[in-house]
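Example record

The entry below shows one chain as it appears in the dataset: sequence first, then structure tokens.
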Amino acid sequence: MDQDLAITASGEATISRKLGMFTTTSVVVANMIGTGILTTSGIIASHLPGVWWVLGCWLVGGIIAMTGALSYGELATRMPQSGGEYVYLKKIYHPLLGFLTGWVSLFVGFSAPIAASAIAFSVYFAAGMDLESVRQVLFLKKSVAAGVILLFTVVHYLGLRLGAIVQNTLTVVKLTIVVGLALTGIVLSGGSFPGLTLSMPSEGFALGTSMMLVMFSFSGWNASAYIAEEVKDPQRNLPRSLILGTGIVTLVYLAMNLFIFLVLPYEQVQGTIPVVEVATSSLFGEQAGNIFGLLVSIALLASVSALVLLGPRVYYAMAKDRMFFSFASRVHPRYEVPGTAILIQGAIAILIAVLGSFEQLLIYIGYALGIFTWLAVASLFLARKRGIGEQTAVRTPGYPYVPGFFLLANLTLLVVTFVNNPVESTVALVTLAVGVPFYFLVRK
């Protein structure tokens, strides 16, 4: 991303507003489309009794994400500074919560999604290369995932120029693959859609677990709020980018699921992680399916690369604000990147990839991130009450019902997920709690 520098009267360099509507919308779309839609439909299907249940979850997930995007549109215009939840929680609640957003980002917001994307890559790559041993042997799968994380850690450690070239190339490839595959599959499938099933999920709280996986796939709907200081005409472009990006991704997700369920019987989808590769093989033949499996694995590399690139910048910004560990502000003298933060993030991601299972990672990530988006949307009510940013605010349509629906839906998901997945949820809460003493240590 290109950045112009402006010079203030005091001689201090500041980032100018250069990013337009197209770029900010692209940031939202690129951050959302990744591991989730390419892997979770099979896991969700294993919890639910029929196709329409799965499609309903994806549609409801899109509606929840849209209400969040509408709410963030007002928050981002009331406080148009880069940082997203870090800014909102620090200003409206307490600096401790601002610190915890960065703390959780180090483990959950970036490192754990890096690990999940790398594991998904290993599964799709094995399917594309027809390497049954890698797909079936846990050690080999984890080794491939760790190797991918190490590769992109090195790439982005070696400078922004190289990292940007790699990232831009992979992002274009990813969008082309996902959108092209979904549309082509729907047109050529010629399949008939299953009828509506009225049977209920057999497992208690299965619907809640499925929705948490869906919301993991929608994470990133708030992406342009993180770069608010670099957006031209933020009162116009920030809300529109959040809404348009979320809407586009919702349509892409529904199209991808239509393709999967038009091609594969429901029983074959259930529990299958590389479900897109399996559907492609069924439609176009095994050889074509292998090729598409490799292409999907490349699309997943774009997610790994983007997360490795973005995470250290968040830690760097917070460290410069004296709200995070000082190592995050160290810039490599030759490569001009926050090198120490990149290396530490890479090490944490490799550790998570080796220790956690794929579904456990998704629930852990979704639960922890859900807490902070809930707090951020709740802060909108306080921001209005205190009159923060009234002159620049673009008000949320349907207030207070739109943010109220988001808060109620997400609170329900958090409660149900904790009951149904206590281990993963507790680990997320412990990760959060451990950050509290570190806050006081950093501030001291």
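Notes for this example: Residues 1-15 have pLDDT under 50 and may be disordered. The CA atoms of residues 121 and 368 lie 23 Å apart.
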